[in-house]
Design brief:
Distance between the termini: 11 Å
Radius of gyration: 20 Å
Helix content: over 70%
Order of helices and strands: HHHHHHHHHHH
Number of strands: 0
Number of helices: 11
Oligomer: single chain
């Protein structure tokens, strides 16, 4: 079961909010595989993934009364999962044997800017980061990344060479990456959210 139709999902969330265990079970079975598979990808540990999976849905059940049926359930689910992953890596830093793994994971995740910025809840952060760029660089970055135009198209539109476009994009990405992540823990959380939104 890959997911639920939006209308059916909303109805189940309403039922879950009222304490309906059957609705909880249906939501659990609809999303557990995606959550588990991506936890394994990120944690490289099936036991840890299984542990966090159960904790995710435990929190969903405990906090069921605060659910908002008007908001997408997967997004709520993924935020809980992301927070748990961050907590897991924080705990890992206390274990000298896991520190190297955390650093390596953080470095790898730090390189996924182009994928991460497409996540809708990060749009405000992205806009704030773009605002830090010089006007011409803002325009170039927005045309290439937001509107999806090629370097050639942007070059023709602005009357500058593709090499100049490339130079602006490299410098813009560097500024945005620094602003966007802030810390490797943030990168872990954002990458986890991104993974969970993949089919």
């Amino acid at each position: 079961m890959a997911g639920l139709h939006l209308t059916g999902e909303k109805e189940l969330v309403l039922q879950l909010k009222d304490g309906d265990r059957k609705a909880f079970e249906l939501l659990y079975h609809a999303y557990k595989k995606r959550v588990y598979n991506n936890l394994v990808k990120l944690l490289h540990s099936e036991p840890h993934a299984e542990e966090l999976l159960q904790e995710v849905f435990y929190k969903v059940w405990v906090k069921r009364a605060s659910l908002d049926p008007e908001k997408l359930f997967p997004a709520y689910l993924f935020r809980i999962a992301a927070n748990l992953v961050v907590d897991h890596f924080r705990r890992a830093t206390l274990d000298q044997k896991l520190q190297a793994h955390l650093i390596a994971s953080g470095t790898e995740l730090y390189d996924h800017l182009d994928d991460l910025i497409n996540y809708k809840d990060s749009q405000e952060q992205l806009n704030n980061a773009i605002a830090l760029l010089p006007p011409q660089r803002q325009k170039i970055y927005s045309l290439c990344k937001i509107e999806g135009k090629s370097y050639e198209e942007v070059g023709l539109l602005l009357g500058i060479s593709t090499s100049t476009i490339n130079d602006h994009m490299v410098k813009a990405s560097r500024v945005i990456k620094t602003h966007f992540f802030g810390s490797k823990e943030t990168a872990v959380a954002l990458f986890f959210i991104y993974l969970l939104n993949q089919k």
